[in-house]
Design brief:
The protein contains 25 helices and seven strands. Helix 11 packs parallel to helix 13. The chain folds into two domains: 429 residues, no CATH class; 42 residues, no CATH class. It has a three-stranded antiparallel beta sheet with strand order 4-3-5. The chain has a two-stranded antiparallel ribbon with strand order 1-2. Strands 6-7 form a two-stranded antiparallel ribbon. Helices cover 63% and strands 6% of the residues. The chain is globular and about 60 Å long. With 553 residues, the chain is mainly alpha-helical.
């Protein structure tokens, strides 16, 4: 890991408030590491005269499928993602940051590493094809490297739904979880016994929204009791045993080509796994909280979260490089998969992959960790709708990339080109809700003009902004320093998330001065703030004077 990244991790770790739930950060970093190790262990790669070949250990050795109950940790990532996203959205509302700017901050960190990966591999594949490498070998590598992008496609769509789902959670609570679980079960029945086509794919929404929604309950403290953690664990394990036993669901929680899968599309078996893993995690939460309080452990957790997307996206590139470097040259033998000799070679194989991944992360993580200037966005329904459309376009583009792989000359270029086009379109749609760039010095002046100690109504008149500092990206939260001077958002759960900006109060004096200005009289205008007692405002502790603005004739 780069020295600058560790220095940034040190600074952020030292500034972490005591009330932060560090277990969330620990689980997020641990989930990414578990996914990387799982892919490296389950991928059976070989090199022969025909080029690169790949297989899945779960198909070669079916007895290993039970290990996926531990290695499939994407449900946990969505659960802690729900905790982080709900906290981030609550912070955005307190500081009067609207949805477009908030969505830009979340999408920017996820998409930038993907664009870098796609462009780098597209150029590399074109050069390799021009050098005479077989198109079949390049297609295998392109599909392998693009495989992890499916997760980001789902996650972007789930993040875009956060404001709506948070509102539903506040109003209906656990009923939302029951509705999502029931919908997933109905989709399974329709896609299985009733053999209704396409319906099962709706579980990409229901199952992953369920995991994300469970994070809201975590953050609210609804799962703090150990009895509820035991309940989640028991229900989840019982459901897994029932579904994978008498009901005939696959025992593997990771899908393979040409067979029924619990992940493509997701099923209620994956939902049961989400409950079981979350319950077990909550049972050990207090011990994990003590362990992650150690300075060295916390510093490593912060550093890992800062480069999480780079680590996730480039780990299969390290696998392809190791296959080309070590297998054709004979530096590492190629025994038959799942044999004793094959298992004995796993430790040096993992060490070789790690040695190749470290420089890749050090090189490309700068794109993820680079600080972005603060942006001010447009406000209103149109801007919010455009941001949602941009997020959905980016999600569709990532889906096309995961299905079609990266572009290879001599192969089909339709899906890869469509995916890259939709991804870039989504980025443009979200970014065009941002009006101008505020550098740190201009940002300080902007806050001084707006008034840092303003009330909630005064803060509501500020432009929407999104602070995307490196520490905020590393933690998926706004730094504590940014929250210190934040104003409080008026409590109104029933207010639409799109109606964020109250209309200014129009007093009789203001209407009169406006009419005089139209008639050609003096341009002096006296206006009253919405929180002023003279304008019949609210949220004031005493009378305030009207604010006078004088304009030259």
């Amino acid at each position: 890991m780069a020295r600058s990244e560790l220095m940034g991790a040190d600074a952020f770790a030292a500034a972490t408030p005591d009330d932060r739930d560090r277990v969330v950060d620990l689980v997020r970093a641990g989930a990414i590491v578990a996914v990387v190790l799982g892919h490296w262990l389950l991928a059976v790669v070989s090199w022969d005269e025909g080029g690169l070949e790949g297989a899945n250990l779960l198909q070669v050795a079916p007895w290993t499928r039970g290990a996926t109950w531990v290695l499939q940790v994407m449900p946990l990532f969505f659960v802690v993602g729900g905790v982080a996203n709900s906290a981030s959205w609550a912070s955005a509302r307190r500081r009067a940051i609207g949805f477009p700017a908030w969505m830009h901050g979340r999408l920017d960190r996820l998409v930038r590493p993907v664009v870098a990966l796609a462009l780098t591999w597209s150029v590399g594949l074109a050069v390799a094809r021009a050098a005479g490498v077989r198109a079949s070998t390049l297609r295998t590598a392109a599909e392998l490297v693009a495989m992890p992008v499916w997760f980001l496609a789902v996650y972007v769509a789930v993040v875009a739904a956060t404001p709506v789902m948070v509102g539903l959670h506040r109003r209906f609570g656990v009923a939302v979880l029951l509705a999502l679980a029931g919908s997933a079960a109905l989709c399974d029945v329709a896609a299985g016994p009733l053999d209704v086509p396409v319906v099962g794919w709706a579980n990409f929404a229901f199952v992953w929204l369920f995991a994300h929604q469970l994070g809201f309950a975590w953050r609210d403290g609804a799962l703090d009791r150990r009895s509820r953690a035991w309940l989640l664990t028991g229900v989840g394990l019982a459901g897994l045993l029932l579904l994978t036993g008498p009901l005939g669901y696959p025992s593997s929680m990771v899908g393979g080509p040409g067979e029924r899968s619990n992940t493509t599309p997701p099923t209620t078996a994956l939902l049961a796994l989400t409950l079981a893993q979350t319950g077990l995690l909550l049972l050990f939460r207090s011990r994990l909280a003590v362990w992650v309080q150690r300075p060295q452990v916390w510093r490593r957790v912060v550093a890992a979260n800062g480069v999480a997307m780079t680590l996730y996206l480039w780990h299969l590139t390290a696998l392809c490089l190791a296959t080309v470097m070590f297998l054709p040259t004979g530096l590492l033998p190629q025994p038959e998969a799942a044999t004793v000799s094959w298992w004995l070679l796993r430790p040096p194989w993992l060490l070789a992959l790690t040695a190749l991944l470290v420089p890749l992360v050090a090189l490309w993580s700068r794109i993820e960790t680079r600080a972005r200037p603060v942006r001010v966005s447009r406000i209103g329904r149109a801007a919010a709708g455009q941001a949602v459309l941009g997020a959905l376009s980016a999600s569709a583009g990532l889906t096309a990339i995961s299905l079609g792989g990266l572009p290879v000359l001599g192969g089909s270029l339709v899906l890869p080109a469509l995916g890259l086009g939709l991804l870039l379109l989504g980025v443009v749609l979200v970014r065009t809700t941002l009006l101008k760039e505020l550098r740190p010095r201009r940002l300080r002046r902007h806050h001084q003009r707006q008034g840092r100690g303003a009330s909630g109504a005064a803060a509501a008149r500020r432009p929407q902004s999104s602070t995307v500092s490196s520490s905020a990206r590393a933690s998926d939260r706004i730094p504590a320093a940014a929250n210190a001077s934040a104003s409080t958002w008026p409590a109104s759960d029933r207010r639409s998330i799109l109606r964020r900006w109250p209309k200014p109060v129009r007093t009789r004096l203001k209407r009169r001065t406006e009419s005089l200005a139209v008639a050609g009289a003096g341009r002096r205008m006296i206006s009253t703030r919405a929180d002023s007692t003279r304008g019949r405002g609210r949220n004031t502790s005493g009378p305030t004077r009207p604010i006078t603005r004088a304009r030259a004739q």
